[in-house]
Amino acid sequence: MPGSTLNWNTVNIPRGQRVEIWAKLAVPGAGARLTLHTDLTPESVANPNALHLGRTEDGAELRYATTLAHKVSDEFDAPFDTTIEVVEGIIAATIMPTLDTQIMEVLMPGTTRAVGSGYEELPFGGSIGAPSKYSVAAIWRMPEDNTKVAVFHLYNAIQDNALAFRVRKSGNAIGSTPIAFRGFAVASRAAGDQTGKFWKQVTV
Fold first, then answer.
1. Residue 88's pLDDT is what?
2. Nearest CA to 86 among 70, 104, 66, 69?
């Protein structure tokens, strides 16, 4: 009988491409995906508020994790079943344009950007109720076909990391800050598609 097929294909190994992180995107309808323009950025009519978060220090890290609840019995030492109790989707990166107040408003839960004569500001502190959540996606081109992209999309996310950017006169350190967008469930969506979607374009 024949052996099994080895998979040394490199097309599915993400490498050598920049990642673009976008916020304030539209949430796609049931069974749909983020609408892209021909240049593979979010299409502006479908995503009129799309905000590019600029340069990163070292790309992005995309995380999907589950917390499992194993079912066990006294008679056996191994579980006989398991269920998923928690699903986590996270887009993490180190963002560089920390003086852009439009970007920082998204990165600082509980702030609202204000603009006046000669200034822009992000006041914070005090009771303001539930912070805003955003639809956020990381988009990057496929390594061996840059006419196609892969997308990691969180439908309803909040930046869940303390901001920490350094201001200094000299040295190699720059004013970047680590961020981590954590996805929340959208209860009105179908089960199995409430938090986000990881997808890629393929040749038809």
1. 97
2. 66
Q: Which amino acid is at 163?
A: L
Report pLDDT digits (tens) over 115-128.
999 999 999 998 77
Q: What is the Cα–Cα distance from 29 to 122, expressed in whole angstroms?
A: 32
Residue 18: exposed, middle, or buried by beta-carbon count in 10 A (0-12, 13-18, 19+)? exposed
- How many angstroms separate the CA atoms of 140 and 137, rounded? 10
Collapsing DSSP to helix, strand or coil, 103 comes out as helix
Q: What is the mean pLDDT of each run of 10 residues along the chain (204 residues)?
A: 93 93 97 96 98 96 97 97 97 96 97 96 88 97 94 98 90 87 97 96 88
Residue 165: partners with Cβ closer than 8 Å, 6 or more residues away: 98, 175, 176, 177
Q: Where are the domains of the chain?
A: 19-63+90-114+130-200
Backbone phi, psi, residue 87, to 5° = -120, 130
The per-residue pLDDT for range 98-146, each reduced to its tens digit, is 999 999 999 999 999 999 999 999 999 987 788 999 999 999 999 989 9
Helix, coil or strand: residue 101? helix
SS3 106: helix
β-strand partners of 90: 63, 182
Q: What is the mean pLDDT of the chain?
A: 95
As given in the structure block, the two tokens for residue 159 are 């930046």
Residue 129, pLDDT score? 82
CA distance 131 to 177: 20
